[in-house]
Design the sequence.
């Protein structure tokens, strides 16, 4: 492929993969191959790569909220893994590749509260901003001060404030913008370390008890509805445990579709559409998937 040699020089051969199975890079553990897969660990390397003017670029974090179709991705997938951080009192500047769970350690050590809700959400800080991730009554919109990103269309680096993110339920300006998030600034609060630790543990236990964390999934498959809880409608439609191929509606939490037995992406997509159809037939509600489906 064009630019292969330059990419290997910039990133190292071990970080440039060809015909790479995307099931190795998504929490659903399904999906066809990407033509080219790049692992980039710094803004400087990312800038050099983008200056090569690659075509058909896809950006992923930990692949925890995406489903890649069975025919894979024609183009280049970039996994941005830069994860440096700085803590100044209760202000945290953190690079987009930082896993949410990994950030919990320095935050706890510095007795900072306000981000406990995010530590059990799989994925990275960058991904959490893209989808305005949330849990237990809190969302990223409540803590983000600013975000710096590279616009992939203009190649310009921009910084936006909280309002300019256009945060909505499980969406932000980045949901549709062709961009790579570099870093974000978060404003939290000083707190009591033991109380913070207790809350983190409490949230972790709730997730273990209510979510199917022992099987591959992309977290909650469907968005919350206006005035109703989507998972309850799915449950009342008698769909818990319903399967198509290797995909199943979780018996533990009806809002999760899981890869129960060597599912194909097609199985999951067909099951999503079946659930949407049945909920509409029974309740007249158009439910929407929360996950992003990419590829061919």
Sequence:
């Amino acid at each position: 492929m064009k630019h292969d040699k330059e990419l290997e020089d910039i990133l190292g051969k071990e970080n440039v993969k060809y015909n790479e199975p995307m099931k190795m890079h998504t929490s659903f553990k399904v999906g066809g191959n990407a033509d080219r897969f790049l692992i980039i660990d710094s803004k400087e390397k990312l800038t050099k790569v983008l200056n090569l003017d690659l075509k058909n670029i896809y950006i992923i974090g930990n692949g925890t909220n995406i489903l890649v179709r069975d025919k894979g991705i024609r183009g280049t997938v970039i996994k941005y893994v830069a994860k440096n951080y700085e803590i100044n009192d209760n202000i945290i500047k953190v690079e987009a590749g930082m896993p949410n769970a990994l950030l919990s350690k320095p935050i706890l050590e510095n007795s900072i509260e306000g981000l406990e809700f995010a530590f059990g959400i799989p994925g990275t800080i960058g991904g959490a901003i893209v989808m305005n991730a949330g849990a237990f009554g809190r969302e990223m919109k409540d803590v983000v001060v600013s975000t710096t990103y590279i616009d992939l269309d203009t190649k310009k680096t921009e910084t936006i404030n909280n309002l300019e993110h256009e945060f909505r339920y499980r969406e932000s300006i980045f949901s549709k913008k062709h961009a790579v998030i570099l870093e974000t600034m978060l404003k939290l609060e000083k707190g009591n370390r033991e109380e913070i630790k207790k809350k983190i543990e409490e949230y972790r236990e709730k997730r273990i008890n209510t979510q199917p964390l022992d099987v591959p999934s992309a977290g909650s498959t469907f968005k919350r509805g206006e005035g109703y809880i989507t998972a309850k409608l799915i449950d009342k439609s008698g769909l818990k445990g319903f399967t198509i191929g290797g995909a199943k509606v979780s018996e533990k939490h009806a809002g999760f579709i899981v890869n129960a037995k060597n599912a194909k992406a097609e199985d999951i997509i067909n099951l999503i559409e079946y659930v949407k159809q049945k909920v509409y037939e029974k309740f007249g509600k158009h439910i929407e998937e929360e996950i992003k489906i990419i590829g061919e």
In short: The helical segments are 4-11, 43-50, 100-109, 125-130, 193-210, 230-236, 265-283. The chain has seven helices and 18 strands. The CA atoms of residues 246 and 261 lie 4 Å apart. The chain has a mean pLDDT of 96.
